[in-house]
Amino acid sequence: MRTTVGIIGAGPAGLLLARLLHRAGVDCVVLEARDRAYVERRQRAGMLEQGSADVLRECGAGDRLDREGLVHRGFELRFEGEAHRVDLPSMTGGRTVTLYPQTEVVKDLIALQLEGGPPLLFGARVVAVEKADGEQPLVRFVTGGPGGQERTLECEYVAGCDGSYGASRRALPPGAVRIHVRTYPYSWLGILADVAPSSDELLLAGHERGFALHSMRTPALSRLYLQVPNDTSPDDWPDERIWDELDIRLAAGSWRLQRGPVLTKSVSGLRSLVIEPMRHGRLLLAGDAAHIVPPSAAKGLNLAFGDVVTMARAFTHWHRSGSTSLIDRYSDNCLRRVWQAQYFSHEMTTLLHAAPGADAYDRAMQLTRLRRVTGPTAAAAELAENYAGAPLI
Hints:
InterPro entries: FAD-bd, FAD/NAD-bd_sf, PheA/TfdB_FAD_monoxygenase. Keywords: NAD, Oxidoreductase. It comes from Streptomyces hiroshimensis. Residues 2-342 form the FAD-binding domain. The model has no long low-confidence stretch (mean pLDDT 96). The chain has a domain at 5-45 and 101-180 and 271-347: FAD/NAD(P)-binding domain (3-Layer(bba) Sandwich). It has 13 helices and 20 strands. It is globular. It is an alpha+beta fold. 36% of the residues lie in helices and 29% in strands. The longest helix has 23 residues, at 330-352.
């Protein structure tokens, strides 16, 4: 097989990149290790910044988003039993965010791809990316499961959109990149509950007992999270204990949390990771293959979209003009945005979580920061701008 851009991974980043390249007339092929059913079931966060929602609309994937997405014009920060609403449009020139599950984004993009887009191969497990330093990289992949047939894809460039444990990362030679990692000393216990959300907007609590988040999956399903120690097992938390703790941490005025059956329960660690540069020869990394952010600021999916919008522009410019100037600047252009998102995600994480071993002084400093970002200050405006995100198109 031959193509111009070989895309590894059919997550939202790889699928959006394929859609953008197809619309620009740049040939590409998408290789995905898993089958379609598995890919469309993968559960991930789904808060879209205004820029991400606009990109999906621009590439033809906005119909269901506009029908079913939950538009949020603000969110609440809660601490000391008080609720402080952050109004996004008034502080960001009209921008909003939309809750739309990542699984649905993927379904929409797959449907468009299979309708008439470039080739999308499920069950194509990439085993190696070779000659990334040369003029024609080679992607080796296997189809048909264990013991299947090995095939090759020759391309001009490779886009690694296959996550932090994928073949793209493994293809990087030792010493070719710097990897910056920060692991946080706490985790999130997350539940999906069969109960309508108790609020129309996200609630983020910075309680002395630890962080809590009230979110929603649909108008009938709630997603909620609690800060827990890193060695926590979901079995340590019976349903009643979870609801009791959420009640304590999210409490504000007369507001009440509605309870319901817990459908799923899991614990996830929090970490930050950045790879510099995000390009090695003709292999360009995007999304989780290049960086990971803690979920406190919901930047992961939006950063991935920013990467592939930047990458698509670079490939389109090269395809039309022959100039590699934008490809050469791809990593630098992305990393400025990536580090800004890392900074904001780190700030939100430390702002709202209780650090192990924190004392009264630490809590007083945390409350002071919370009051600054919820008052009429430049810090409040900066928080809203970073939360809403910058335009992508």
